[in-house]
Design brief:
Elements: H1 4-16, H2 20-39, E1 44-49, E2 56-65, E3 77-79, H3 80-86, E4 95-100, H4 106-133, E5 139-149, E6 152-156, E7 161-164, E8 180-191, E9 194-200, H5 204-214, H6 216-219, E10 223-231, E11 235-242, H7 249-254, H8 259-267, E12 272-277, H9 282-289, E13 295-302, E14 307-312, H10 317-321, H11 326-335, E15 338-343, H12 344-359, H13 373-381, H14 387-391, H15 395-399, H16 406-456, H17 467-473, H18 476-480, H19 486-514
Parallel strand pairs: 2-3, 7-9, 11-12, 14-15
Antiparallel strand pairs: 1-2, 2-4, 5-6, 5-8, 6-7, 8-9, 10-11, 13-14
Helix pairs in contact: 1-2, 2-4, 5-8, 9-11, 16-19
C-alpha cells in the first residue's frame, strides 16, 4: 500500500496535470538541496523516496577505484579496500552509499525543500501547458472570462489561462466576468513567467467555425468554404462553393429567411457578412467579390503578378471602394490578387493620355497664321504654347486669360477650326498624289521590263526550227513571247491589237486589187501627153 506522502503526490499530479514521477523527482531534489545546505558537504548527494513507507533517505555516493593512487577527489572516490568495509560485495567501477540522517535537518532546511518542490512543480506545469497548446494553433476552443486587465481580457481555458490583447478583439464586443465565449487559439509564447497562451476573437477561423456549426452542409462537406477575408467588427466576406450541383452554396449558408447567417451575426455582435459564390475564373470571382457594387468590366493586367484592373460606372465607384477602402481591400484578400478600381471617366482620360503620348506631336501656335503675333503672345503668357492645348480649352477658360474677350474667343475658335480643316483637306490630296506617283513609277517599271524582254528575243537566242516562222510573222513572235510581269503583259496586249488591226487593213486592200475586173481602154485615164489610139488593121 502506498504511503500517505505518495498519495498526496499523486493527488497534486492530477490537479496540475503532470506526471507523478516529476513530483517525486522534485521532492528528492529538494531533500538533496536541504541535506547539502545542512552538512555543507561537496559530496555527490542523492535522495530516494520509499513509496511503501514514505521515508526519504539521503546518501552520498562514491565511485570505487583500485588503489589510493587512483583517488583524485576523496569526496567522490574511494579505494576498493575502504569500500569493502562498508559493503563486502563492492567491486572496482561500482558505487558505494553513505547514508546521511535527515531527521536533524530542521525547519530552515524543510522550508528550502518546500520552495524547491514548488519551483520544480511550476516548471513541470509550464512545460505541460506548452506541449499541450503549442500544436493547436487556429483551433477554436471554449473559454470563460476570468478577469479584465486593462485592455487585455484573461480567459480560463481549463489547464491554463489565456490572454486576449486589444488587437485580437472586435470593437463591437465587451465581456463580463464569468461569460463563456468561443475563441481562436492563436499561439503559445514562452516567457520568464511561463508559457502564455494568446487567443483571439478577430481571426477568420472563428467565422469558419461558426459556419461549420450552423450549416450542416458545410459540416458534412457538401458546401466548402474556399476563402475568408475579415475585418473584425466591420465586415466579413466568405467565398463558398458546392460539390453537389443540386445544392445552392449561398442559399445553404443563408438559411430559411436568413436564420443561419443571422445566428452567426448575433454571435459576432452584429458584424456584417457577405456570402459570395466562389468561381475558379479570377475575372468572374472579382465581379462577385466586389458586390454590392456593379462592375462594368474586369481585365487582367499581369497574371504572373496577380494584378487586376476593375472598371466601374462613375456612380458605382464609391460603393466599390467602400468605407475607407474596406470593400476593395476585403475583395483583394479574398481573391489573393491586387485590384485597381477606376471609373469610366478615369479610364477614358487614361486612354487619351496614352494616345497623346503615343502620337507625341505638338504644333506651335505660330503655324496658325490667322491668330496673329499679338494674340499668340497673349496665349503664351496664359501658358498655352501649342495648337493642341488651345483646342482643349473651353471658352470660359480662354476668357480668363488677360486681354482675351468673347470676340477674341470667336476669332480663336474660327482660326483653330480653319487650321484643322486645312489639315483634313490636305490629307486626301497628299494621299492621291502618293497613289498617282506610285502608279507612274509602276508604269515606268513595266515599260522598262518590256523593252528588256523584247531586246532579249533575237535569232541567236531562238530555236532554228522556229526561226523561219518567227521571221515570217514579224512582230507576232514578240507578241507570243511569254512574260510574267503584268506591266509587260498589258503593253504587249496593246501591241498585238495594233498589229492585228494593221494586218487586217492590208489584207482587205490586197483582196480588192486581186478581185477587180479587167479595165477597158475607155476606163483608162492618163494625164500629160495624150497617147494616140492604135490603128485598126
Amino acid at each position: 500500500m502506498a504511503s500517505v506522502l505518495y498519495q498526496q503526490i499523486e493527488l497534486l499530479s492530477r490537479e496540475k496535470g503532470i506526471d507523478p514521477a516529476i513530483v517525486v523527482g522534485a521532492v528528492e531534489d529538494a531533500i538533496v538541496v536541504a541535506t547539502r545546505k545542512y552538512y555543507k558537504s561537496q559530496e555527490n548527494l542523492r535522495a530516494e523516496l520509499d513509496k511503501e513507507s514514505g521515508q526519504i533517505r539521503a546518501f552520498a555516493v562514491k565511485a570505487i577505484v583500485e588503489g589510493a593512487e587512483q583517488v583524485e577527489d576523496a569526496n567522490l572516490q574511494i579505494t576498493l579496500a575502504d569500500a569493502k568495509k562498508v559493503d563486502p560485495n563492492a567491486e572496482v567501477g561500482g558505487e558505494v552509499r553513505f547514508y546521511k540522517p535527515t531527521d536533524v535537518l530542521g525547519r530552515i532546511a524543510a522550508q528550502l525543500a518546500k520552495q524547491v518542490i514548488f519551483q520544480k512543480v511550476r516548471e513541470a506545469e509550464r512545460e505541460t501547458v506548452f506541449n499541450e497548446y503549442s500544436g493547436r494553433s487556429n483551433e477554436v476552443i471554449n473559454a470563460t472570462v476570468k478577469r479584465v486587465e486593462g485592455p487585455d481580457v484573461i480567459f480560463d481555458i481549463g489547464k491554463a489561462e489565456a490572454r486576449m490583447p486589444r488587437k485580437e478583439q472586435s470593437r463591437l464586443e465587451s465581456f463580463a466576468v464569468g461569460e463563456r465565449v468561443r475563441v481562436v487559439l492563436v499561439r503559445v509564447e514562452k516567457n520568464a513567467k511561463g508559457p502564455a497562451v494568446v487567443v483571439s476573437r478577430a481571426a477568420p477561423e472563428l467565422v469558419q467555425n461558426l459556419f461549420q456549426t450552423e450549416v450542416p452542409e458545410i459540416y458534412d462537406g457538401t458546401v466548402v468554404i474556399r476563402a475568408i477575408a475579415r475585418e473584425a467588427g466591420e465586415r466579413t466576406k466568405i467565398a463558398v462553393m458546392s460539390k453537389d450541383k443540386d445544392v445552392d452554396s449561398v442559399g445553404a449558408c443563408v438559411g430559411m429567411k436568413g436564420m443561419r447567417v443571422q445566428s452567426i451575426i448575433r454571435e459576432l455582435r452584429g458584424e456584417k457578412i457577405d456570402i459570395i459564390e466562389y468561381h475558379e475564373d479570377a475575372v468572374t470571382f472579382a465581379e462577385k467579390a466586389l458586390q454590392p457594387a456593379k462592375v462594368s468590366r474586369v481585365s487582367i493586367v499581369d497574371s504572373a503578378d496577380k494584378h487586376l484592373e476593375v472598371i466601374v460606372d462613375d456612380s458605382q465607384l464609391s460603393l466599390a471602394i467602400g468605407k475607407k477602402g474596406q470593400n476593395v481591400r476585403l475583395a483583394a484578400k479574398l481573391l489573393g490578387w491586387k485590384i485597381d478600381i477606376k471609373s469610366e471617366e478615369e479610364k477614358r482620360q487614361e486612354v487619351e493620355q496614352q494616345m497623346a503620348a503615343l502620337v507625341g506631336t505638338t504644333t506651335p501656335l505660330s503655324n496658325v497664321t490667322e491668330l496673329g503675333e499679338g494674340l499668340i503672345e497673349k496665349l503664351a503668357a496664359g501658358g498655352i504654347a501649342t495648337v493642341e492645348a488651345l483646342a482643349d480649352m473651353t471658352p470660359e477658360q480662354l476668357e480668363e486669360i488677360p486681354g482675351i474677350g468673347p470676340k477674341t474667343v470667336e476669332k480663336i475658335s474660327l482660326a483653330v477650326n480653319n487650321y484643322f480643316a486645312s489639315l483634313e483637306s490636305a490629307e486626301p490630296a497628299a494621299a492621291a498624289a502618293g497613289v498617282a506617283e506610285g502608279e507612274a513609277a509602276a508604269d515606268a517599271a513595266a515599260v522598262e521590263v518590256a523593252e528588256q524582254d523584247a531586246a532579249s528575243v533575237t535569232p541567236e537566242t531562238m530555236d532554228p526550227a522556229t526561226l523561219d516562222t518567227t521571221e515570217s510573222s514579224g512582230l507576232d513572235a514578240a507578241a507570243t513571247t511569254d512574260t510574267t510581269h503584268p506591266g509587260v503583259k498589258a503593253e504587249k496586249s496593246e501591241i498585238e491589237e495594233a498589229i492585228e488591226t494593221g494586218q487586217a487593213l492590208e489584207a482587205d486592200a490586197i483582196a480588192g486589187v486581186e478581185n477587180a475586173p479587167d479595165a477597158g481602154v475607155a476606163d483608162v485615164h492618163t494625164h500629160g501627153d495624150e497617147v494616140p489610139a492604135p490603128e485598126e488593121k
